[in-house]
Structure formats: C-alpha cells, structure tokens
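Annual report, structural modelling task.

Input specification for the MU-OXO-diiron complex:
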Amino acid sequence: MGKGFGVNFESDDGVNTGSNPSIHEVDAERRHVLKCTATAVALLMGSHGWGTTGQGKPLGFTAVPPSMLDVLTVPPEYEAQVLYRWGDATGMPTGAPQFNADASNSWQEQSLQAGMHHDGMEYFALDKNPRHGVIAVNHEYTDDGLLHSDGMTNWTADKVKKSQAAHGVSVIEVVQQQGQWRVVMNSKYARRITAITPMRLSGPAAAHALLKTGDDPAGLLALGTINNCASGRTPWGTYLTCEENWNGVFSAPAKPSEDQRRYGLRPGGFGYRWHEFDARFDVQKTPNEPNRFGWVVEIDPMDASQIPVKRTALGRFKHEGATTALTQDGRAVVYMGDDERFEYVYKFVSRDRVKPGGFKTNQNLLDHGILYVARFDTRGFGTWLPLVHGENGLNAQAGFSSQAEVVTRCRQAADVVGATKMDRPEWIAVHPQTGEVYITLTNNSQRGQLGKVVDDANPRADNVMGHIIRWREGATSSADAAALEFRWMHFVLAGDPNAEKVEHQGNIKGDIYGSPDGLQFDAGGMLWIQTDISTSAQGKGAYKNIGNNMMLCADPQTGLTKRFLTGPPGCEVTGVAFTPDRKNLFVNIQHPGETASERSNPEQPKKFSHWPDGPNGGRPRSATVVIRRKDGGVVGT
Ligand code: FEO
Ligand code: CA
Ligand code: CA
Ligand code: CA
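The model returned the following structure:
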C-alpha cells in the first residue's frame, strides 16, 4: 500500500457521526474493502504512493511549542522582521503619509497606506536578485473600531471612505539590503487597489443585464474589490485576488430574494455601515451591485497603470484562493474554494494554452474555458461536474438562460448538478512535482445539525477542528489537471489526538493544530499549513492545548508535521510567499488582538495584543513579516 494512505484510511478514532455512515464507522468488511480499494488506487497511481519528492533535509528546524503570549515566535535558528503593517506607506509616487498611532489618518492618507487585515499574498521577483521584488497582498476586511480614532461612534461619510480605502490590495516594491528588508518609496510598481478602484468586468457575465447598474449601464466597469482573502499567481506572472465575504458590506432589502439569501445578503449587512453613506451598498437602491462582487480579480503587479480585471468565467461565490496549475497540453487550471459551510470546490480549465510573453499575450486566457465543481464520491473516487449552460440540467427550466447566469448564480448552478457540500473550503495547494492537490476544510460545527449528514469526505458531525483532503487528478496515474475524474483521500483530520471529545480528536502525526486555512507548497514539496481558530475559541475548550494560531510544516509523504511559528493572541496566521531562492519566507499576521465581541470599540483589541509595536505603540496592527534562517539557508530545510 502506498505510504500516504496510512495517514487516514487506517485511522480508527471510533467516531460515530450520524445517519450517513462515515469512513470511521464502517464495519470490518467495508473497512477491508476500503483498504483493498486504496491498494488498487495506489497501484493505479504507481507504486510510489503520494507526494514522494521530499528533498534535502525536510523539517530541519526546531519546533516551537504552542503559545498564548503576545509575541511572534519562530524557531531559535530563525529570525523574523516586521515589514509592512497596517498604515505603513505603500511607497506610491503620489505620497507616503506616516501612520498616526491614534488612527487619525484621513481616508485620503489611508489610500496611500497599507490597508487592514493582510491575507493572501504573492512575491514576484523583479530581476536576477532574488531579494528585490514586488509583493501583492490582500487587505481582507476592516475592524472599524480600530480604524478610526473614536471607533464607530459618530459615523460619517469620511469613515465609510476610510473603511473602503483600507480594503483591497497593496502592491509594494521590496528589497533586502544589509540584511534588512524594506518597502521601496517612490516606486513605479506601488499601488493601492481599494473599494473604489475602477476595474473591468470580463468573461461570460460581462455586459449581462444582471451586472448593469445606473452608474454602469453597459455592465463593463465595476468599482472596487473588497474582502480580498486568499490569492493565486498565474503562470504568466499576474496576481489573482479573491473576493470572499463581500456580502457583509451590503444592506439587503427587508425580505431578501432567494438569490440574495443564497449569497448571505441580509438587511443591515454585517456591521460595516457603508450603506448609510454610500448608496452603492444599499441593495434596495442598487439591486445589481452585489452581482459585481464575488469574483476573482486579475492584477498585473508589474504595471501600476493596468486596470484590474474581474474574471467572471471563474464563477461568483465567496472566493478563497485561486491556485493555478498547467494541463499536460499547456492550458491553465485554477483551483478555488467557496468558504462557507456546505459550499463547494471548483476548478476552471482554460480553453487556450498559456503562451510565453506575460500578461500581454495571456490577457484573455481566463475568459474562455470550462468551470467545474467537485463531487466527492465514496471510496475515494471523485468527479468534476461541468457548469456549462445547457448541460447537466443547467437550462431555462432550472432558471439558467445563459452562461452569464450560470457563473453569476454559480452556487445555485452547483446545487443543480449535485456537487458535494464541504466543510468550508479554504486554501488549495498543488504539489510542485506530483501535481497532487491539497485543500483545507477549515471547520464546520454544523455538519451534523439540522438534518445535515456526514459523508465520506466530511466525516465528522462536530467538525470544529477541520481537515485536509488531497486528490490526484485522473482515473489513472497520468494525473492531468484537466481530468474529469479524481482520486481523493484525507491527508489529516486536525485536532488534538488527546482531546476530551472523541469527535475533536485528530490523527495528526506530530505537532497539533486546529482549523487549517492557509496552505501552500514550497518549491521543494514541503507543505506549509496556517491556522485560523476563531478568535472567540483560542485557548478554550477543545482548543485549550493548541494556543494561538500558528504555521506548521508537513512532509506530504510521511504526514509528519512540525510547528514553525506561533502568532500573538487573537490573530490568524495567513498568507505565505517565498523568494525564488527560498531563503526568505513572507507571512501575514492578521487581526492581532481581535475578539469576537465589541469589534467596534477601539480599546478592546488593546486589551489582548499590542503586536507588533509593543505596549507603547497603541493599537495592534496586521502586518507582513519576513522570516529567515540566521545562517542564511533555505527556509524549512
Ligand atoms: Fe478569509 Fe475563508 O478566509
Ligand atoms: Ca482571514
Ligand atoms: Ca482564509
Ligand atoms: Ca478562515
């Protein structure tokens, strides 16, 4: 049997998860069948099993223990430097205002500074020097209590504008000199993309009636990108940013339509209060404006004048990540999760092949192709179901009169074709040598509630800890990313194996963690896992031995996992990028000090964290950190 199968199929935690039998409660006979099937699949895939490309000396660092301290901890043989905090100047030629510790910067100044809540990011090398590049980094959401001197009291149009300016993406030029990294000022690459930046709508939904508004009767030019969560990079060198919880900034009518409810639009929104001063976010006044969000946006990090493009062919949902691969004949594949309970996993396969020449020669590539959604069948089999108008019941009778409607009402289309409802799909990572695909399912405490049932892929009814699934494309060992079938298995069920409740017990080999979220392979084939245990749960109950959120490194062949970094209280660890020589690792610390309650109160986070500026610095700040080995070696080896 392939080594990797031992990671999950032989686990036996005795979980009884509900009416739909899970892989953990099968009887002996079925377990035998599963093992035989696993063996057969392993044989089909070749005798080497999964992910066997570990190089050099994997996991060659000293693991750090769980921590609840208000510090960032890395292994003793590493050092970390804070590089780009909320409020730091982006380095645009139009100005570089200093951050005011009392958060008194204007919205215009915020438009020239790092936004809040850094999430996904990518590093693009500029020249032969691996330590000179451009970083594109998302600013996922705002904590408006922290963002304004007096929090959310005295709510004004200017506060809305500042909140909008703190969303979006930063593009920064960075360089390492004399052992220290810095953001380059007066850079031709630097730009801030915010909730009001013009962007082109492209692909099948562009110019469709559903995307037309009073301000944009052609349906071709949207304003802004928001709630940008995870990311991707294309083979031709552009940045993909993913609009995730964009529904939160809209205020829906008192009785939202079925389509509006399907995307989580509700009256009053989720506390952003933009609609009070900006009619664009009042759905009663601009009913089609929400249809212009929920897309993947393509940004050329090398051209600050490029108009970002919303790629509607990739579907509209709560996008978490856009990880790319190439098919054997050179077409682009984009893997994507929809991060909400009981939502789906998607992939897009382009019609055309990637051509040499960067963005200019590939600028329409993501507009033509087929979008698929995943069905995780039993016994480790899986199928990609095309979301193509006229196929699989996606016709006028089912409410879809065009491909534009299929991609705009993508969740509903995935319902029609019978995709598998997953436990909150977050990041997807593709193994650089084998092409195997890994996905984090961060958690779903409601899996077994309200008549919902567990299934083979989502086997725990009270899945507060989350899990990681991996699959190999194709029914045979050919592993083409364009395949219509796949073979999947669990890589790990997260959680402390010694947790009190049996359903919270994971089967991690090595250091424990919960709620995996960020996920990326380095070029050597080691898997980096970042966690996002919710701020209200850290250090409590089932999470009490786990501490603050963290980053770990796992060997995909053995499953062995070591804790590499722990963050300050209330933070999430997210975003991961390497310099091409792998000697510098960039990581984001998002929302240090956040608590579940009193988010609108500027004093609240300070009670829990002063990271990174310390007790005299005032407010905690999300930040990009760069981590290096003290001896200058390759990170993680
Ligand atoms: Fe923004 Fe699903 O994490
Ligand atoms: Ca986040
Ligand atoms: Ca995430
Ligand atoms: Ca998360």
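Residues 119, 140, 229, 244, 320, 339, 426 surround MU-OXO-diiron (ligand 1) (CB under 6 Å).
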